[in-house]
């Protein structure tokens, strides 16, 4: 419990989900074979960090930023440019990471300084404009950032697919294959202990550290003040807290973590472009995950990201089935087109803003609380 | 001593003028600075292009700033309204062009029924949007922003579902193609048309806001909505009307922009939204006049920079916005305190 900073899941269902997700991610390379699965579980780790860092802004302090994808992109581009220009060395990785973090911190500080003093709406608008401006700048500065084509680069050999940690590949067990075919012997596959595996575990450990670190931060006196600002800024200020300072620190920390996640993403993908690192779609995804998962809980970021990435990768085939099943009906097929899954996500998002403002995690916790209350009431003697 | 006083007087007057008319100053600075950076003929045609773009931007932005000014709703789905407008206007126009009984009518005239249809449809959509999406979250900025982003996703996905994801070419009618050449300087006809349309809307809006009873209520509502309610006016109805008008203005701007680019695609509104946001922040959230001048400034600057330093043409307006905000944190002509 010390590890979770006293902020436990407080819901059985949530705990179970969390354990399943963490276990699945911890053994993912040994449970899910194939490059698509590798991409999926790496993305879950990366996005979890990104969404966690967004949650401390949106969920805990009520700051709406549209520049979060920009910070992710800054981290990724700094790493990519360093590795491209300095060659695949550890020094380049270090320089790239440092450059990304420093740039993100500086940009976040400047934005925070001149737009956090005014109302929340203003910060949202300014970050939106700056983020899109940054993206157009990146796509136009062809010589430096590779423009729309992006940057492909190589990483140190230890982190690449050619490196072998052990001579013999390890054994893995294909869970999905086993569940569909039921053939245990056939489901065993070989896991190559390449640099990719190493890198994935780097991501996994980083995600866990970020989660625990932010949980610690948000359950500290600092986090309490942030939540006080969320609930009633005027009152927090009246109690003697300089809210601008707290919000600025929050924005900077969040930007640093986003840039860190971006740097790791660049290492993991070995190719970046504005579309995948900076686009407004990415930003909207972060927003959707944070809200649907549950704002201001941090657990919501983990659950939301896992669900979202899985849905993005695999739900579309489900929709494709529905699409074919309704081929005769006039309008339905167009709406059930697998490409249109985003429409349903948008509707889900709007509904969850209205009806479950605390998202999945909030709902689960509310249910658990209600149940324990009825149990208490029942056990009390009349 | 007298001379000293006089200098002080001039300085003070200058400062007062700067304070009262920051928009003229900004416009003059942008226009004059660029005047020395390029040949005269280029400057002239870029100025017309910039004014055209600026006026279209104004039409697009005015709806959003009006909605914010009156209701305090930051409608991030405005970009989606722009796109819807371009699609509806474009399809109605193409339909009318292809309709045999109208073959003899000049295509330029067909823009008007198309624009009318767009405005009506967008106003209806605006009413629906206000009722369904925005009304439940009137006094909560955070949820408004989230909900309108969600609404924007839904609208643009529906557009793709109905019209498809491909780009639709929208050729301008022949009579609006080509350009006038005056003294060796080319002025594109459509740009002049857009300038005319934009100015008409600006003056029309000013007339409505300053001369009519509804305008009076709108101004009063921006100042103090509760007081208007206390005096017995149903401000909710006013909200609906303004929201519909705002959506219609955005959609009409979308039609103008569609013909300007001669191409309609799903990302159209989203692309414009950034410029719109710059315009309304720089102009002062909620201010129509501020919106007008800052739209002109952004239009001109983008065009001039497109000639001087194409790489930074889009980035320059953001830099300008940051500078303006450092100078006047509430925008050029502040109306609503942010």
Short account of what is shown:
The complex is a heterodimer of chains A (382) and B (338). Chain A is mostly helical and 382 residues long.
Record the SSE blueprint.
The complex is a heterodimer of chains A (382) and B (338).
Chain A: H1 12-26, H2 28-31, H3 35-61, H4 68-86, H5 90-115, H6 120-140, H7 142-145, E1 151-152, E2 170-173, H8 175-181, E3 188-191, H9 195-218, H10 221-231, H11 233-238, H12 243-269, E4 271-272, H13 274-277, H14 280-293, H15 299-325, H16 332-336, H17 341-355, H18 359-379
Antiparallel strand pairs in A: 1-4, 2-3
Helix pairs in contact in A: 1-15, 3-9, 3-12, 3-14, 3-15, 4-5, 4-12, 5-12, 9-12, 10-12, 14-15, 14-18, 15-18
Chain B: H1 2-20, H2 22-35, H3 40-71, H4 78-97, H5 107-134, H6 141-163, E1 168-169, E2 179-182, E3 185-188, H7 189-211, H8 213-223, H9 225-230, H10 235-261, E4 263-264, H11 268-283, H12 288-308, H13 313-327
Name the poorly predicted regions of chain A. none
Pattern of helices and strands of chain A: HHHHHHHEEHEHHHHEHHHHHH
Helix content of chain A: over 70%
| Measured distance between first and last alpha carbons of chain B | 43 Å
How many strands of chain A?
4
Assign the CATH architecture of chain A. Answer: Orthogonal Bundle
Oligomer: heterodimer
Rg calculated over all Cα atoms of chain A: 22 Å
CATH topology of chain A: ABC transporter involved in vitamin B12 uptake, BtuC
Largest interface: A-B, 42 and 41 residues
CATH class designation of chain A: Mainly Alpha
Question: How large is the radius of gyration of chain B?
Answer: 21 Å
Q: Can you tell me the overall shape of chain B?
A: globular
Main beta sheet of chain A: 2 strands, antiparallel
Mean pLDDT of chain A equals: 88
> Which strand-content bin applies to the residues of chain A?
under 5%
Label the structural class of chain A.
mainly alpha
Low-confidence stretches of chain B: none
Q: Strand order, main sheet of chain B: write it out.
A: 1-4
Tally of extended strands of chain B? Answer: 4
């Amino acid at each position: 419990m010390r590890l979770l900073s006293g902020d436990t899941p407080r819901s059985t269902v949530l705990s179970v989900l969390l354990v399943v997700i963490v276990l699945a991610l911890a053994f993912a390379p040994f449970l899910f074979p194939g490059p698509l699965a590798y991409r999926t579980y790496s993305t879950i780790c990366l996005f979890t960090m990104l969404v966690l860092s967004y949650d401390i802004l949106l969920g805990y302090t009520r700051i709406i930023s549209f520049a979060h994808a920009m910070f992710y992109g800054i981290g990724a581009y700094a790493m990519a440019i360093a590795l491209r220009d300095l060659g695949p060395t550890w020094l380049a990785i270090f320089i790239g990471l440092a450059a990304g973090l420093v740039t993100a911190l500086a940009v976040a500080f400047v934005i925070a300084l001149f737009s956090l003093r005014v109302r929340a709406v203003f910060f949202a608008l300014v970050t939106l404009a700056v983020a899109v401006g940054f993206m157009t700048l990146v796509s136009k500065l062809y010589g430096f950032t590779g423009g729309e084509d992006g940057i492909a680069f190589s990483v140190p050999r230890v982190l690449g697919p050619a490196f072998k940690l052990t001579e013999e590949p390890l054994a893995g067990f294909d869970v999905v294959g086993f569940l569909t075919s039921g053939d245990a012997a056939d489901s065993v596959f070989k896991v190559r202990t390449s640099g990719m595996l190493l890198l994935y575990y780097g991501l996994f450990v980083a995600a866990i550290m970020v989660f625990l670190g932010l949980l610690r931060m948000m359950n500290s006196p600092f986090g309490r003040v942030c939540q006080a600002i969320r609930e009633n800024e005027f009152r927090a200020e009246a109690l003697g807290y300089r809210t601008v300072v707290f919000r600025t620190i929050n924005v900077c920390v969040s930007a640093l973590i986003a840039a860190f996640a971006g740097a790791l993403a660049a290492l993991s993908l070995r190719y970046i472009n504005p579309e995948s690192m900076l686009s407004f779609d990415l930003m909207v995804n972060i927003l959707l995950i944070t809200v649907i998962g549950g704002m201001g809980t941090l657990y919501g970021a983990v659950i939301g990201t896992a669900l979202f990435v899985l849905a993005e990768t695999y739900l579309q085939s489900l929709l494709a089935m529905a699409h074919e099943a309704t081929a005769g009906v006039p309008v339905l097929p167009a709406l059930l087109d697998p490409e249109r899954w985003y429409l349903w996500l948008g509707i889900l998002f709007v509904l969850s803003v209205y009806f479950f403002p605390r998202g999945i995690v909030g709902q689960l916790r509310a249910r658990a609380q209600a149940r324990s209350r009825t149990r208490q009431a029942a056990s009390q003697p009349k | 001593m007298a001379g000293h006083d006089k200098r002080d007087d001039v300085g003070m007057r200058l400062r007062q003028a700067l304070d009262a008319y920051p928009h003229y100053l900004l416009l003059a600075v942008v226009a004059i600075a660029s005047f020395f950076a390029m040949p005269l003929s280029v400057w002239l045609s870029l100025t017309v292009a910039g004014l055209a773009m600026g006026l279209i931007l104004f039409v697009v932005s005015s709806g959003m700033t009006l909605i914010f000014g009156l209701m305090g709703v930051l409608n991030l789905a405005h970009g989606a309204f722009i796109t819807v407008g371009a699609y509806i206007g474009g399809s109605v126009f193409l339909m009318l062009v292809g309709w045999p009984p109208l073959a003899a009518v000049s295509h330029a005239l067909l823009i008007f029924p198309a624009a009318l249809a767009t405005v009506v449809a967008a106003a209806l959509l605006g009413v629906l949007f206000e009722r369904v999406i925005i009304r439940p979250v009137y006094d909560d900025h955070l949820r408004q922003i989230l909900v309108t982003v969600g609404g924007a996703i839904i609208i643009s996905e529906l557009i793709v579902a109905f019209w498809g994801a491909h780009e639709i070419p929208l050729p301008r009618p022949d009579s609006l193609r080509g350009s006038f050449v005056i003294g060796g300087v080319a002025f594109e006809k459509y740009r002049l048309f857009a300038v005319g349309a934009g100015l008409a809307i600006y003056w029309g809006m000013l007339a409505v806001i300053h001369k009519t009873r509804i305008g009076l209520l709108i101004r009063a509502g921006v100042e103090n909505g509760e007081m208007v309610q206390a005096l017995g006016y149903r401000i909710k109805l006013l909200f609906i009307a303004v929201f519909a008008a705002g959506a219609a203005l955005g959609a009409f701007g979308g039609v103008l922009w569609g013909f300007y680019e001669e191409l309609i695609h799903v990302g159209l509104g989203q692309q414009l939204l950034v410029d719109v946001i710059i315009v309304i922040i720089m102009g002062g959230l909620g201010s129509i006049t501020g919106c007008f001048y800052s739209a002109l400034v952004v239009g001109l600057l983008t065009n001039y920079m497109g000639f001087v330093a194409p790489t930074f043409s889009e980035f320059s307006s953001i830099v300008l916005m940051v500078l303006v905000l450092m100078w006047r944190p509430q925008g050029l002509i502040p109306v609503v305190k942010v």
